[in-house]
Amino acid sequence: MEAFTTHTGTAVPLRRSNVDTDQIIPAVWLKQVSRTGFDRGLFAAWREDPTFVLNDPAYEGGSILVSGPDFGTGSSREHAVWALQQYGFRAVIAARFGDIFRNNSTKMGLLPVVLPGEKVEALQSAVEADPKLEITVDLAERQVRWAGEAVAFEIDDYTRWRLMEGLDDIGLTLRHAEEVAAYENGRQPWLPTTV
Amino acid sequence: MGRTLAEKVWEQHVVRRAEGEPDLLYIDLHLIHEVTSPQAFDGLRLAGRKVRRPDLTIATEDHNVPTVLGPISDPVSKTQVETLRKNAAEFGIRLHPMGDAGQGVVHIIGPQFGLTQPGMTIVCGDSHTSTHGAFGGIAFGIGTSEVEHVLATQTLPAYRPKTMAIEVSGELPDGVTAKDLILAIIHQIGTGGGQGYIVEYRGEAVRKLSMEGRMTVCNMSIEAGARAGMIAPDETTFAYLKGRPHAPQGEQWDRAVEYWKSLRSDDDAVFDKVVEIDASALTPYVTWGTNPGQGLPLGEAVPSPDSFADPVERAAAERALTYMGLTAGTPLREIEVDTVFVGSCTNGRIEDLRSAAEILRGRQVRTRTLIVPGSMLVKLQAEQEGLHEVFKAAGAEWREAGCSMCLGMNPDTLQPGERSASTSNRNFEGRQGKGGRTHLVSPQVAAATAVTGRLTAPADL
């Protein structure tokens, strides 16, 4: 996983709510068996509309997506995270996220930042007024900063540590293999197997 | 203080708990399909890791498979299905491929084999894994990184979500189904209402649901934003499970049932949130918009965006009406559809097919109507009951098992601008095909709609 400590960049304001993962990466793109090439499918249907924000040259190179509430709802497809990262996004800011999407993001090093709805709107407006506005997403300080504003966000210590170190969850769990084996010895005898 | 059902099941599965870390949770059953697993198996190979418990893992082919007989024509879909076959063989995982009698939608086959049991933890790289909570376990969808984690370790690190009780009082009126109930719940709490929660569905109306109905309700928990939905096991659960291939037998059955009976929220358990809904006041529900919270009783009209006080909801409604090609004030019953889809992990079980057949018996459909059984065993049972003859006589298409038009990864899709009444779970833009317009409905409403060509309740016929 790519480590995340702090990131400064410009943003893309996405003024839509309930941006489900079917919009982020439509199902037709999920047939790939590799982990690459999903940037081309990012918001594939919406990008056909020339007025869609990602087609606006003013926001070219934006690395922070600032969305309406309930971003990443719906399907569990991690391809949504891969698509956003491969397109160049490092963080997504919204008032609410779909649980699975948020979880998937922290496994891959894409930072989901929850800010209050009014702060998200203020940031969207600031970016619309000045698309080159520099925004800093600071995981170490748990803060988003722009143009004299500094807004705190919450993230649990463990996830923050894992993201800052870029640690692989599987490696961490395998350190506890003995505890897993001990648990397995005490499982209820009627539990099914698939064989 | 007493404990909730979710807390009991969670605690039973904690392998390791340490200050400042998420719990390490043991996973009793891992379901696999072709779409979200290939990159996870690649990860295992790269790291030189094995599958820790292939005997707690089962795979099926469902998302990409065609529902007409014959090979997969799309070469990309074909590669994905072949990749699953190769991975299952390499890592020693039981697979039900296309054409196999046990093949079907991943959330249909677990329960039908008796692999889904009360008190279990079940995961799958698919958000509708919440379906399995109908048996009183904790079941939730995960992404591909977590699929790889479960394959390698049979565990997941996770924080226990908060608990929500949805108390459903009263009885569902005749002609009102589990699907209408869950659509009404999602409308009430919103698509984000369940975020951060495991929902337990409780109350008289829930107790009276069949296992099929309970699975429909739990299935769409994710559409309310909840990570999981669950229902305490009872005699209905035990009767459904008894005698299934992987259900406990003999003395083990008795021991299991004794334990399963303890799997209920204690009377003095405290939920983090309680939501109440009166089942007796419900009527058939349909969606008009592009998220599952945008639903209304069939007797109402397409709402005006101005009727939403919240500016975010108002903007969402405006956008939805444009996408759906609808005008505010149009009675929902006047909306004409091109296609009816009966199937999916939400409503592709035998009971769903029976209720659709009951309405189509002796009638003719006026729309393209796809009836897609959720599994090959559901298909076989329906054919033994003669339901396929009813569908065919009505002019509907009787298909092979798969996810089909729920998400249109196979050739079953809507064309741009086409409108469906669908028993599936998501009315997102383009979900059933680019530019397609989806109205979520119960199997009964789907069948009645097929007869008239407009959104219709069975009572209207």
TrEMBL record, chain A:
Q: Which GO terms describe its biological process?
A: L-leucine biosynthetic process
What task does this protein carry out? Catalyzes the isomerization between 2-isopropylmalate and 3-isopropylmalate, via the formation of 2-isopropylmaleate.
What family is this? Belongs to the LeuD family. LeuD type 1 subfamily.
Instruction: Tell me the subunit arrangement.
Output: Heterodimer of LeuC and LeuD.
Q: Which InterPro entries match?
A: 3-IsopropMal_deHydase_ssu, Aconitase/3IPM_dehydase_swvl, AconitaseA/IPMdHydase_ssu_swvl, IPMI_Swivel, LeuD
Q: Which Gene Ontology terms of cellular component type are present?
A: 3-isopropylmalate dehydratase complex
Task: Tell me which residues make up the Aconitase A/isopropylmalate dehydratase small subunit swivel domain.
Answer: 1-116
What gene is this protein a product of? leuD
The protein's GO terms of the molecular function aspect are: 3-isopropylmalate dehydratase activity
- EC number(s) recorded for this UniProt protein: 4.2.1.33
Q: Which UniProt keywords apply?
A: Amino-acid biosynthesis, Branched-chain amino acid biosynthesis, Leucine biosynthesis, Lyase
- Catalyzed chemical reaction(s): (2R,3S)-3-isopropylmalate = (2S)-2-isopropylmalate
One Pfam family cited in the UniProt record for this chain: Aconitase_C
Query: What is the organism field in this record?
Result: Nonomuraea jiangxiensis
What is the designated name of this protein?
3-isopropylmalate dehydratase small subunit
Q: In which pathway does it act?
A: Amino-acid biosynthesis; L-leucine biosynthesis; L-leucine from 3-methyl-2-oxobutanoate: step 2/4
Which EC class is this protein assigned?
lyase
TrEMBL record, chain B:
Query: Pathway it belongs to?
Result: Amino-acid biosynthesis; L-leucine biosynthesis; L-leucine from 3-methyl-2-oxobutanoate: step 2/4
Domain of life, per the record? Bacteria
List the Pfam families. Aconitase
Q: What is its EC number?
A: 4.2.1.33
The GO terms this record gives for MF are: 3-isopropylmalate dehydratase activity; 4 iron, 4 sulfur cluster binding; metal ion binding
Tell me the residue numbers annotated for binding [4Fe-4S] cluster. 345, 403, 406
Q: Where is this region: Disordered?
A: 413-443
Question: Which reactions appear under catalytic activity for this entry?
Answer: (2R,3S)-3-isopropylmalate = (2S)-2-isopropylmalate
Keyword 4Fe-4S present in the record's keywords: the answer is: yes
User: Can you cite a GO biological process for this protein?
Assistant: L-leucine biosynthetic process
| SUPFAM superfamilies in the record | Aconitase iron-sulfur domain
What does the cofactor field's note say? Binds 1 [4Fe-4S] cluster per subunit.
Print the keywords alphabetically.
4Fe-4S, Amino-acid biosynthesis, Branched-chain amino acid biosynthesis, Iron, Iron-sulfur, Leucine biosynthesis, Lyase, Metal-binding
Q: Which cofactor does it need?
A: [4Fe-4S] cluster
Q: Which residues form the Aconitase/3-isopropylmalate dehydratase large subunit alpha/beta/alpha domain?
A: 7-453
- Matches recorded under PANTHER family: 3-ISOPROPYLMALATE DEHYDRATASE, HOMOACONITASE, MITOCHONDRIAL-RELATED
User: Subunit arrangement?
Assistant: Heterodimer of LeuC and LeuD.
The UniProt similarity line reads:
Belongs to the aconitase/IPM isomerase family. LeuC type 1 subfamily.
- Function recorded in the entry: Catalyzes the isomerization between 2-isopropylmalate and 3-isopropylmalate, via the formation of 2-isopropylmaleate.
The entry's protein name is 3-isopropylmalate dehydratase large subunit
